[in-house]
Amino acid sequence: MFPPALPNYFIRKYSEVGDVILDPFSGRGTTILEACKLNRVGMGNDLNPLAFVLTKAKADVPEKGRIISRIKSLKEGYSTASVDVSTVSEDIKMLFSDSTLSQLVFLKEQLDWKQSKVDTFITATLLGILHGKSNGYLSLSMPNTFSMSPNYIRKFVFEHGLERPKRDVFELLSRKIERSYEKPPVKGKAYAQDTQSMSRIGDSSVDLIVTSPPYTRVITYGKYNWIRLWFLGKEAVPVDKKLFFSESIPKYVDFMGGVFLEFKRVLKQKGIAVLVIGDVKHRKKNFDYNLAQIVWERCAAPNGFILKEEIIEDSINSNSKVSKIWGKTKGRATEIDRIMVLQKS
Q1: 300-327: per-residue pLDDT in tens?
Q2: Distance (Å, rounded) from C-alpha 124 to C-alpha 28?
Q3: How far apart are CA 226 and CA 89, in angstroms?
Q4: Is the pLDDT reported for residue 189 higher than 50?
Q5: To 10 degrees, the CA torsion angle through 96, 49, 30, 149?
Q6: Residues 6 or more apart from 84 whose CB is under 8 A from it?
Q7: What span, in angstroms and rounded, lies between the C-alpha atoms of 132 and 111?
C-alpha cells in the first residue's frame, strides 16, 4: 500500500485536469480516488475480487442519501428475515458473535456488489470494518489488518482469553459512512482484467499510469484476506491462482515484459508511467534484488520506454510497511521501495 500523497504528487506533476489516470494493479483504489478528487478520470484494474470491489467503490461513489436509505431498507429486511448460519465454517464463527454473524450472513446474501454501485459502496465499507483491534470493528480483537491463518487466530484468541463482541453491523456501517464519506467531483472506472490484456481500455487512451506491481513472492493477497473474501463468496486459493505469484526472477521478468507491452498500447504518445517497486531478498543468499532496476533494464527499456528521472530510492520506516506484521518471518520484503518515472518514447 502506498500513501495517498504519493499518487497525488505524481498526478499533479504529470497530468492535467480531465486526463485519464490508470492504476493497472489498483489494490485499495488509492490512485483512482486521488485522480477523481483532482478532477481527472481515475481508472483502476485488478484481478483480485477484493481489490476490484474497493476500487469500484472509490471510482463511482453514489449519493450519500441513497446509501443511507439502502442500509435502512436492509435493516428493516433483516428484522423479519430468517437467517441460517449453520453452513458457515467454524473458522468464521470463531470471529463474530452469533447476532453479528447473523447480520453478516444476511448482508452477504442481499448485497449485489456485482451490479449495484450503492451495494458496492456498502460492501466496500463493510469489508473495511470486518475485522480489527478496536470497537469500531465487527470481530473479536484481531492482531493485524491482514487475515492471519485460522490456527494463528485460534491460538491468539486462546492465549488472550478473547470473547466475541456483540456488535451491530448496521450501526457500525452507518457510523463509518458518517466519518468517511466523500464524493469526488469526477467519476472513474474499475475493471477486473489480466494486466497483460486490458481489452476494455482503448489504445492510446491513457495519459498517466501510477501503480505498484506485485513484488514476486512478498504477499499472497488471497491468503491474507481470506475473511474478507469469505464475505464476497470467494475462496483464497482460487483467487491467488489467478494472481501473479512466483519467486523466480525470470518468470517475473516475463510477466512484467507482458505488462509493459500493454502499458505501451494503452498510453498516449509521450505518456508517463510511475511505478513503485520494492527490493526483495534473495531466497537463499544474503543480498537484495534491486527489482526496479531489473524491471527497467529487462522490461521497460526493451519495450520502448525511457527513464524520465533517475530511479528514486525511498526508504520506508519498518513500522509503516505492511510486511512488518510478520516480524522476523516477513520473508523477502525489505524496507526499500524504488520509484521509476518512465516515458513512452
Answers
A1: 999 999 999 999 997 655 444 443 433 4
A2: 10
A3: 12
A4: yes
A5: 40
A6: 105
A7: 22
Half-sphere exposure of 333 (CA within 13 A, CB side): 21
Tell me the three cell numbers of residue 217.
513472492
Region of residue 87 (left: phi > 0; alpha: psi -120 to 50; beta: else): alpha
Q: What's residue 335's pLDDT?
A: 73
Task: Give the pLDDT confidence of 92-131 residue by residue, as tens digits.
Answer: 999 999 999 999 999 999 999 999 999 999 999 999 999 9
- Report the CATH number of the 5-60+185-221+238-344 domain: 3.40.50.150
Is the backbone of residue 311 left (phi > 0), alpha (psi -120 to 50) or beta?
A: beta
Domain boundaries, the chain: 5-60+185-221+238-344, 64-180
More confident residue, 236 or 173: 173
One-character DSSP codes across 299-338: IIGGGTEEESSPPEEEEPPTTTSGGGGGGGG-TTEEEEEE
Confidence (pLDDT) at 333: 53
Q: Three-state SS for 277?
A: strand
State which H helix or E strand residue 340 sits in. Answer: strand 333-344
* Burial annotation 3-22 (CB, 10 A radius, 16+ → b, else e): eeebbbebbeebbeeebbbb
Enter the C-alpha cell of residue 304.
520502448
Amino acid (1-letter code) at residue 95: L
Please report where in the chains the cell 483532482 appears, as a residue. 38
Query: Residue 104: how many CB atoms within 10 A of its CB?
Result: 24
Q: Are 41 and 235 in contact (CB under 8 A)?
A: no
Residue 336 is predicted with a pLDDT of 84
Rounded CA-CA distance 113/56 in Å is 9
- DSSP H or E segment with residue 45: strand 41-45
Q: Look up residue 260 and give its three cell numbers.
A: 509493459
**pLDDT tier, 294 (very low <50, low <70, confident <90, very high otherwise):** very high
